Amino acid sequence: MMAGAHSSGAFSRMTALLEDHFGGRGKGTAVIQTHDFPDHDAAASAFALARLLEKRGIEVRLCYRGIINSFSLKTMIRDLEIPLHRVHGTVKDLRSAPCIVVDGNPTNTNARPVTDFLFGVVDHHANSGVPGCPFTDIRTNCGSCAAIIAGYWKEERRVPDRKIATALLMGIEMDTDFLSRRVMKADMDALHRLFFVGDWEYGTRVVKTSLSTQNLPAFEEAVTHARLQGKMLFSRIPLETSQEVIAILADFFLRFREIFVTVVIEDEGAERHISVRSRDPALSAALIIREALRDIGEGGGHDYMAGGVIDPAVSISEEELFRRFTDAMEKTGGHQ
Ligand SMILES: [Mn+2]
Predict the structure, then answer these.
(1) Residue 83, φ and ψ in degrees, nearest 5
(2) Is the pLDDT score of 138 beyond 70?
(3) Do 217 and 309 belong together in one domain?
(4) H helices then E strands: how many in the chain?
């Protein structure tokens, strides 16, 4: 049997559907799209999927929507030469091209397709629906989307080169917080295959040193404004910082042993980001943020980690935000 040729794996299914659509092998261009405001896992997944599709003769364009203001992610993209292109609205010259969304799902509001043809979704987020498109591979039993894409390489019996392997390792590092949360068998299998192919130490250094001393005021404000309510810590930072800083703060506050849910809000600037974390299985960060931001913004993610933004047109007091999150915790945590 030829490698992969008759396999019924997900990647073979994807390429067969793509070749059907193009009317033959190597005859078209696909667009791969990360979730909006991509992170390391999304960038790694898009990159590694693109390189694998190219081996099947399919041309690929990598796109994202939103802003990358993470110094760490910018470094990864530069060093590993990941050709990610920012898009406003749709991809003008490839509007009818099949679009594959990775590490996100249009039903979870974090990835509206950038072409007119949503072809596929490869994702590991729970709490989202199955979109009506030709190909879906949604595995909530993977801690990272990178692990799913690493599985495609295995299915093809190929070993990624050093840069691709390093990117995939960084995706796993990011989403599992260095193997400390939601590590699943797929992540460990991928890690085992990629560890000595990629550069784990480079990845760790770049993913971990994501802050600058310029971020110190945000830390000061976050501590000063911390409010406690039961097992929740809520903090609204009244200055413009970054999505990454509030994510790190939300992770950090979860280290207090009395705290099970953290909410950190960047309440200044054009993009007012929110990060929510939960280490209580009965309280879903994704459900809490979705409920709390109803009609004033949007958010989504995983049960243990979620993010969102407040609509720029909305003006809302700290008191009202605090009340929304305490209410959302009560309302969504009903099955305790
Ligand atoms: Mn992910």
Answers:
(1) -85, 70
(2) yes
(3) yes
(4) 11, 12
pLDDT at 321 over 80: yes
Q: In what order do the strands lie in the sheet with 29-34?
A: 84-86, 59-64, 29-34, 98-102, 117-123, 135-138
Distance between CA atoms of residues 144 and 328, nearest Å: 27
Instruction: Read off the pTM.
Output: 0.87
Instruction: Please tell me the distance between residue 24's alpha carbon and the centre of ligand 1 in angstroms.
Output: 32
Structural domain that includes position 250: 213-332
* Span from the CA of 172 to the centroid of ligand 1 (angstroms): 8
**Do residues 235 and 283 both lie within one domain?**
yes
How far does the centroid of ligand 1 lie from the alpha carbon of residue 301, in Å? Answer: 9
Q: What does the alpha-carbon distance between residue 34 and residue 146 come to, in Å, rounded to a whole number?
A: 12
Estimate the crossing angle of helix 162-175 against helix 40-55, to 10 degrees: 150
Cα separation, 293 vs 302, in Å, equals 16
